[in-house]
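The following block was generated as part of the benchmark described in Methods. Ligand: alpha-L-fucopyranose.
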Amino acid sequence: MNKETQEHPWKLIYNQPAAIWEEALPLGNGHMGAMVFGGTAREQIQLNEDTLWSGFPRDTNNYEALRYLKRVRGLVTEGRYAEAEETINARMLGVNTQAYLPLGDLYLEHDGAENFSHYQRELDLDSGIAKVSYHTKTGEFTREAWISAPDGVCVIQAKSSVKGGLQLALSLDSLLKHSVELKGGNGLVLKGNCPTHIADNYHKDHPGAILYEDGLGLTFELHLQVILTGGSVEYTDGKLVISGADSAQLLLAAGTDYEELRSRASHLKKRSTAKNGNNLSLAESCEARLAAAAAKSYEELRDRHTEDHKRIFRRVDMDLGGRERDGLPTDERLMKYKAGQEDPALEALLFQYGRYLLMGSSRTGTQAANLQGIWNHHLTPPWNSNYTTNINTQMNYWLAEVGNLSELHEPLIDMIREVSETGARTAAVHYGARGWVAHHNVDLWRSSSPSGGDASWAFWPMGGVWLCRHLWEHYSFNPDAAYLAETAYPLMKGAALFCLDWLVEGPDGLLVTNPSTSPENRFMTKDGQPCSVSMGSAMDMSLIRELFEHCLHAVRILGVDSEFQQQLEEALSRLSPLKISNDGRLQEWNEDFAESEPGHRHVSHLYGLYPGEFINGRDTPELLEASRLSLQKRITSGGGHTGWSCAWLINLYARLKDGEAAYGFVRTLLSRSAYPNLFDAHPPFQIDGNFGAAAGIAEMLLQSHLGEISLLPALPDAWKNGSVKGLKARGGYELDIEWQNHKLVSAVIAASRDGICRLNYQQQELKVQRSDGTLLPAGNALEMKAGEVYLVTV
Ligand code: FUC
């Protein structure tokens, strides 16, 4: 259902340059990222490269940890939770992950542009091109910029309306150790080194937070080449000075020697899908990309980029009404929205922006989207801009499948494969267990050990188990037995083997995790102390149950591993179940503890409601009710206060089929947690909320868990008339849905595989016809063949 044309523009529009980074506009191809400020006298384009991290391949495992496991288990069994926590903190943790770093900046100084008028800048999500235009007394100046996935370069064109009117001074800079030199008369090369260590410096108390060591960290290069129409370029004071040109085309390529460093480390295997995984040196690879791009005309480069971009972006369209505001400046719309104005088109823009941002930060062969996607300008970024795998990394990919961006899931799947390799060592070293394990932080070097710090976040050997959900989701939306057999199942099996070894018998004879935490939350011990370590947290048990069930499903589909199947079935039957507290809430821990922070931002115990699915009205109505109560209590106690936490609430309420509550949190997120460029505010900027909110909006319109496709399951009053086209559903379906006066008008379903498609629209009987007009007998279970398209009406 790829669209030839897009009916409405999808644009972020501003009438002034960005004054702060969070007003600049993001570009990206998964490998390079850029933030375009749109300055006049001085334009700044801040750049990123996806493999530019601090650190080097090293072993972060704690070889002493296993010595204390038995002792800690005993303490937990005796209810001596605080002592168990102390022992973990002192003996069983590892070291922090490394940081994702900024590459550098391109500056364009435009003499005479201090005074300007008719200013406009925009980001067109549909073409993936950012534009700036303004007038000075000499004429009109325009710039456009994009980052091409097919050509692997960033392209910027600066143009003057007056012949020979372009005077620009170009320079490159970086916060990292670097030097800049002239290349070939019309280019610059910035060469730099990365620190070997960036320390978490949240409290600004680390005197050596940025450590360089000769010959140890990554090296990187950023190449710039200028192609002029008219005029001339000369090199002065480290800058390329363009005079008298009609237009200038700037090409940028960047890279690091990450693959080389990786291949030298015995504990890291060679990457199979690396973008720069050829035999070229770093410099040669940048030069080759620039030369190939320079050999193409500007129009050809632009066409290749827009064709590639639109091919993906246009798979989905959304109209929630109110599109007459689409031509207005985004920051003004946001201010009015914050003041209470309705703007459903801004909500649709937030959804499409989520899709755009995933395209910018996660493409085949690149690194997965980190805490800031691919956009970071800090040398010591918040939380190291790493992969936080106790919610944030997973939330980044909630949108991937339903948002018809399945192939953008691949970088995460690559990362899971790589973490399973380091994680197999961590499973053995830390826990004496089979399979593989990951904790709450992962970095470029695929650190799988616990980080340093505090057990409440660092001790959580379930990161890999949660990541495995994504392997299964990718299969559910794109059922492909080869992918299941070769990629998903072996990784899931490895994580399940770890869980089989990790589970122990609790006092009631049922299987639990011990020691166990519930991400970042604490309970009150009998002595009134906040503590995080006990046994069998709801999230641990939910994740393990789900993984075992997915593995069993896979085993049946693939017809393999009957012995393993038996072990899983037997363990499943003995897993400690979720519990309901005295006051009717879903218990976060195995015991009915009081929470130390009742409004905590994590809602880990509700995992089974979303993203999981085993808490639902059909199979577990009591747990569903208890989840609803837990959610209410969290929220009335102040929960949902960070961007991502609020985004999770949208999805949870969508699953509770409470469209009004879900919508309330869409409004909260956009009003409270969006910067002027619509980046999500934790605060500070953290991209998970963008992806989580977009996923939540989709979840309000379409759900496909529990073996059926549910149309408009949580449609709020605010979206009276509308349509969405191209969302994906589990089982390999694509849907267009239209509604009027809050009622379904029609749905078009396209099947990519043979199968039974079960539909649900408010339990009503639906009319179904084939594309040739033949009506099907009444009933909501449609037997569809690959390639068939059905029209459904009420
Ligand atoms: C988790 C969250 C924090 C933050 C961090 C990156 O630890 O609890 O709120 O999002 O990840």
